[in-house]
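Q: A reviewer asked whether we had any structural model of the full assembly, not just the individual parts. We don't, so I'm hoping you can provide one. Inputs are below.
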Amino acid sequence: MSAVEPLGTCPPHNPLGHTVELGRDRPIRLDCGIEMAPVTVAYQTYGRLNADKTNAILLCHALTGDHYVADPHPITGKPGWWIDLVGPGKVFDTDRYFLICSNVLGGCMGTTGPRDINPATGKPWGQTFPVITIGDMVRVQARLVEYLGIDDLFCVIGGSMGGMQVLEWAASYPDKVFSAIPIATAARHSAQNIAFHEVGRQAIIADPDWMGGNYQEAGLRPHRGLAVARMAAHITYLSETALHRKFGRNLQDRDQVSYGFGADFQVESYLRHQGSTFVDRFDANSYLYITRAMDYFDLAAERDGVLANAFKGTRTRFCVVSFSSDWLFPTPESRAVVHALNAVAANVSFVEVQSDKGHDAFLLDEPEFHATLTGFLEGAAEHRGLRRKGNSQP
Amino acid sequence: MSAVEPLGTCPPHNPLGHTVELGRDRPIRLDCGIEMAPVTVAYQTYGRLNADKTNAILLCHALTGDHYVADPHPITGKPGWWIDLVGPGKVFDTDRYFLICSNVLGGCMGTTGPRDINPATGKPWGQTFPVITIGDMVRVQARLVEYLGIDDLFCVIGGSMGGMQVLEWAASYPDKVFSAIPIATAARHSAQNIAFHEVGRQAIIADPDWMGGNYQEAGLRPHRGLAVARMAAHITYLSETALHRKFGRNLQDRDQVSYGFGADFQVESYLRHQGSTFVDRFDANSYLYITRAMDYFDLAAERDGVLANAFKGTRTRFCVVSFSSDWLFPTPESRAVVHALNAVAANVSFVEVQSDKGHDAFLLDEPEFHATLTGFLEGAAEHRGLRRKGNSQP
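A: Here is a predicted structure for the entire assembly that you could use as a starting point for your response.
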């Protein structure tokens, strides 16, 4: 990681990212009531902040994502999760916009999380880390934006848990969000989604190497439980159609079944691979805390149960996006957000992208989706008075 | 269990069920090539076989079911899984039909399975038990039916894995099946379903108490892994709508979240309960073998990839039933069976029952479903020349 930057400066892109320590002077009050300080935030930037500071886009990552949006992942070496969307002339045109993405609170890629040392004890937080919320993640992001000297964001965008953060931003900091793009998300986690997360958590907790969350001190890692959790979750990220097209009942390496418990089917081999590679890059306790934050998310609940109350008086321009084959965050969840925004006469467009790729479509090559983003950002930029580089026309 | 009955007799109902040892004289050749003998079969009967032996219905149970169809489960004490359907005047009218249900090969409720002692070694089979198929399960059932002195069955019926057995019966023993009712099932296990099963298997295998399958000799049981497997599977048995209606985001015991990892949400508590009670009544190795059998099931594959080939020349009367909200065995899977039957001009009716209860609907109070069964059985009974008791009209 690069050195800590002085207050109010926006560091240029660095493939390794940046870190900053926040809250030492002013602790961050979490929803659970605990005040946390300091909080280290790992983040990444692309492009340049303009003189008016009006071109900043905050990208919010999903459950197991991080701030390596368009850089090789430092552990896996794989390309960033939105690499196809970031760059000159791309959806997030780095000649035009200044992009920020930070690893969420509770994460394991540099921002303070359960894997880090609790300064009060000198030991890893583990299960003594406070249970955090999407609101807490956004609170920390708001501090980062403030630290960077940016008053308000041109756009906040993200898919899945990133979309929850977008909605939270719009609800909690309406004056700091010019436009918002919540993608493949919901204003509250459904019973089925809580159930799938609970299976993952129980798989981790059932692993004896989890050791009540204190595996680090014992020099262990609950690899097996975390891999099972990932496998279960991964199924929910794909559509049945996508799984059928990719694998169907195709056999692995053989012409016929083995009459054994090896990975006879390609889909088994694929899932096992997903599980085993995940444990190399992710922390089990982080997985527990972040899934919990998603389960707790319910934007209406704290507002008399009326979702529209979350957006009363908003001047933010919204573009809500869902994918037709996403069964984890199905279109009706997005429609509920749109209805709430309509109820307060917000400026909102809604696109259900036709795709058979399931929830993960927001991370994949989906031209209609990318065209939607480009079009919406274009319109918002015009309203914001952002000009294209080398173009004197508004 | 009651004493072994002499060949060719149909024992009356006994709440504890019956057992019989089969294959000692004529081993049962399994799909993997192994010859198995003897095979103990635990089964249950309801009603009386008529003099013509034309009123026998074979009920095929699902993955974790057993032959206690309408009796209290000997371990849990819970009512049988189809108790509402079995009895005088009910869907399966015990005044009219003779019902048979046997625990499947590989099971853990009395029929030979991995928990039993391998006579060749004197030790529990464990992972040395041969990998079985739906075809093997049906082969053993056919031997039981033969042992009971029944030439052909008036009806074979079952849901989910039970439905796979029904299809296998119709394909492998067409002359022994007068009518067949495959419910909430498919002619081949889909990639998504294999994936969910693989998660469950990996959860079991990841449990150190599984001990490579030899947990019995060590006096252990992989409770934690099996509970996680059950939790993951259980989600797939319910529809999102059913989970939302039953639990939504309702909290357990409290007015607000705990900021901890206890079961804050009712749906978490429910799932944990499903997991923890399951391990009391089910064997982990049985779970591995039976899920594998379902994954291997592909009726078309062994018949040049053409499903219709499985039913060529069939004279069986079919009633195919699906449930509109079943996403584990969705209606298109049933429709594929119907199309194959139509292609060979079979006698087939097809009903998609409108229900929001998901896959488990076949085990629940669904009046339209029960009326469908009654109506179809009534028509088939008429064709079979079965008369109602105390009714001289055909």
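A: Points you may want to mention in the reply: Chain B is about 30% helix and 15% strand. The CA atoms of residues 11 and 301 of chain B lie 38 Å apart.
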